[in-house]
Amino acid sequence: MKSNRQTTLRRQVAVTGDGVHSGLPVTLTLGPASIDAGFVFVRSGSDGSERELRAITRHVISTELATVLGDRGGPLVGTVEHVLAALRGMGVDNATIEVDGPEVPVMDGSAADFVAAIDRAEVVSQSAQRRFIEVLRPVSVTMGNAVGELRPYSSGFRAEVEIDFENPLIGRQSYALDVTPARFRRELSRARTFGMMRDVKRLWSSGFALGASLKNSVVFDDERLLNNEGLRYADECVRHKILDVMGDMALAGLPLLGAYRSIRGGHKLNHAVLTALFADRGAWRVVERQSAHRRAARGLVDVGVGLAGGRIAAAYGPDVSWAIEESFFWRSRLCQALSAGGGACARQALTIMAVAGFAAGMGDRRSVGSDAVCGWFCWGLAGRLRLICVDERGLPP
Ligand SMILES: [Zn+2]
């Protein structure tokens, strides 16, 4: 799949579960959508009518217990955050999300079933360039003792989240990552919603969270975790908070090039930060993948000069990176990658460059080889190995 292109789903896939607030069964169907459509909710009415609504900040009508979308016609669908997190996290740009009830089904309280549905539906490239909202200057919001901030970060979307609960079983947890589809799947998608037993009881008594149970929530009382199966990650709570951030930030309408930091945050804060960003017209702009990457690769350009005619436009994507430990390891991975990509290289006259780990500066840069068709070399950057592909004109394929 070409990482600079927009993506959608190849086919429709349905999942069925219960709404966490209504407790009623709902079927959700993910499906393809056209270029620039974004994420569109379609709600089938009891009279056979259908209402559609794009998942964007302007359509958020409540963030009290979950994120609810609606318009002048009233609320359309609630608890949208986990399915949106899965779509954005897995690198989908355009999709329809049909629901036959007022809520997205809660499934197991995480995004795992939505990720599985996206896998079954298959992510496919479209013909248009992917577009991003690039954060140009920091925007922050304070709500009581909660703080949220979006700041410029040119190489993708980064989340830095800290939670601080009185309950000692949760306590203080923090987690930060550059979100890629692989890391989203592995580190975030299975983290479940969590809560305190006394809050759940209070919600039940006021008619909310009727579908909440130990099957779809991690629940603590003052002394212990009530779920017999235990936690999926030791820090499952903060990871779930990042999952929620992914879903809330998906309401930007396009993927973000920026870093989001929150301390003691939640849906309300996330929504307020995004609203503040859009209110400041000088704080953001829409860019296409290629220009975004060129900026990200600025530091690499001088190194590329001479290998690809001096016009390097890096087309690296997060999906072509591996974490590395030692130079020996990245060397062998580089060789594997080059031999695996050899056919594609020859066919498309690619230049493959690998960027591998060194801690700081460009001092450990080293050329490891070149030939008539493919010039390639590698050096380290922030402990990760990246392949950068450019064609003979120095442009992404
Ligand atoms: Zn959540």
Overview of the molecule:
- This protein has 397 residues and is an alpha+beta fold.
- It has 3 domains: 5-126, lpxc deacetylase, domain 1 (Ribosomal Protein S5, domain 2); 133-288, lpxc deacetylase, domain 1 (2-Layer Sandwich); 297-390, no CATH class.
- The chain is built from 10 helices and 23 strands.
- It has helices spanning 81-89, 112-121, 181-188, 197-205, 236-250, 267-279, 289-296, 298-304, 327-340, 342-348; strands at residues 5-9, 13-18, 25-32, 39-44, 50-54, 60-62, 68-71, 74-77, 95-99, 123-129, 131-135, 139-143, 146-151, 157-164, 172-178, 194-196, 218-220, 256-263, 284-288, 321-323, 351-355, 378-379, 384-390.
- Strands 11, 12, 13, 14, 15, 18 and 19 form a 7-stranded mixed beta sheet that branches.
- Strand 6 (60-62) and strand 7 (68-71) form a beta hairpin.
- It is globular and about 55 Å long.
- Mean pLDDT is 76; it is low at 290-331 and 341-397.
- It binds zinc ion.
- Zinc ion is lined by residues 81-82, 193, 240, 243-244.
Give a concise summary.
A hairpin with a 2-residue loop joins β12 (139-143) and β13 (146-151).
